[in-house]
What does this fold into?
Amino acid sequence: MIPAAFDYHAPGTLKEALALLTQYAGTAKVLSGGQSLLPLLKLRLGQADHLIDINRIPGLEYIREEGGYLKIGGRTREAALEESEIVRTRYPILVDTARVIADPLVRNRATVGGNLAHGDPGNDHPATMLALGAQIVAVGPKGERTIPVDQFFKGLFTTALEPDEILTEIRIPSPPARSGGAYVKLERKVGDYATAAAAAQVTLGAGGALERVGLALTNVGSVPIHATAAAAFLVGKKPDAAAIGETARRAAQASSPNQDRRGSVEYKREMARVLAARALTKAIERAGGH
Amino acid sequence: MATHNIRVTVNGEARAAEVESRLLLVHFIREGLRLTGTHIGCDTTHCGACTVLLDGTPVKSCTMLAVQADGHKITTVEGLEQDGKLHAVQEGFWEKHGLQCGFCTPGMMMTSAALLARNPNPSEADIREAISGNLCRCTGYVNIVKAIQYAAQKLKEAGHAA
It folds into this structure.
C-alpha cells in the first residue's frame, strides 16, 4: 500500500518544526515513531499534505528524574522505556505498559509521546499516565504549556494539543515511599489492541490504608476511562479483597465499551472489572501492602 | 511531487537515490535497489516479513519512509552472508529446518541476528519474546527457536575459537 502524496520536512530544531507547523496549519502531521501514523496514511484512513518529521531534532529522547518528577522526552522509544534502569526499578507500571504495546520491532520505533498524542483510546500509555497523574508538556508558537493528563484526552483521536503544538515531554510525579503501580492488559494475541486493560497506581499510608489511588481503563470507551469515583471509594480503606472488588466493580461501571470483534459490551465491561481488580492487587503488592 | 536526495549505506555499500516523500523504505529496498530478499507480507505493521536492521536495530521497513533512512545504515537479509560464508543464523535455519514456505524467513533472521548481537545467550523465553513481532504461519515456531539456539551456540563457539 502506498500513502497519498505528501510533502516531507525534516527540521533540525524544534523552532523550525514549530514554524513549519504554523506555516502548514491544519494540513500537517507530526511524524514521531510513525507506527500508527504511517499505517493510517497507507490505509488512507488518514490524510496529511505535510509530514513534519521530528526524528532529526536533538534532545527529544531522555528519561531522567528531576525536581520531583520522572521526565520522559516526547520522542523516547518504547524500547528505551523498557530498558531504562530508573523505569525498571522505580516505575514498574511503565515497564508493564511498554511491554504490551504492539511488538518488539514496533517498539524500536514507536514513541511514548506519539502513543499519547495520537489520542487512540486503544493505546496503552493513556490509562497508565492517568493513573500516575502525569502532566503533558506541549510547545507551540506561544511557548510551552503544561497540561494535566486528565484534561488531555478530548475524544476519539482528539487531544488538547493544538494543531501548531508538539508534545515534548511527559512528567510523572515521583511516587512517595510505599507506592506501587501495575498495568494489566487482555489481548487476543501479541500486538493487538486491548480487549480491555487497567492501570492502577497506589500509595499506602502509615496504618496500611490507601492514601492515594489512581485507576484508569484502556479501550472501553471513546477516550481512556479515568475511574476517579471508583478510586475515591478505595482511599482511606484497608486494601482487602472486598474493597478491591467493589472498587473494580465501580470502575467497570464507569466504562462504555463498544461491541466489536474483541467482544460484546457485557464481556468487555466484565473484563474491565476483572483487570481493574488484578491491577489494583498487583499495585498494592508492589507498594508493600501484602 | 516532492522528492529528496538520500544517501544510505546498504549492506556496507554507499547508495544514493532520489526518492519521493511517500516512498516506503521496503519499496526502496525491493524496487529501487532490487534487493528482493526483504519481503512484503501484511503491509500493515503486523507480520515482520519486511524486517531490516536500521543502524543495527530491527524495524519493519513497511512502516518507515525511505527518506527517513537518509544518513543511516541498513542491513537486509542479503547482508547477512559475509565472504561467501552464511551467518550463523542462516546456518541455524538450514540445519534445524527453521522454515517451510520461507516467506517470513528473511525478517525472522534479521530479528534473530539483532537479538544475538544484543544478547548472545538468550533463554527460550527471550527468543520467543524477540520474534513475537514476526509471524510464521507454517512452522509453529518450534524449529525457529531451535534454529536461533543453534546460531547462539555457533556464535559462542566461534567467539571462543577467535
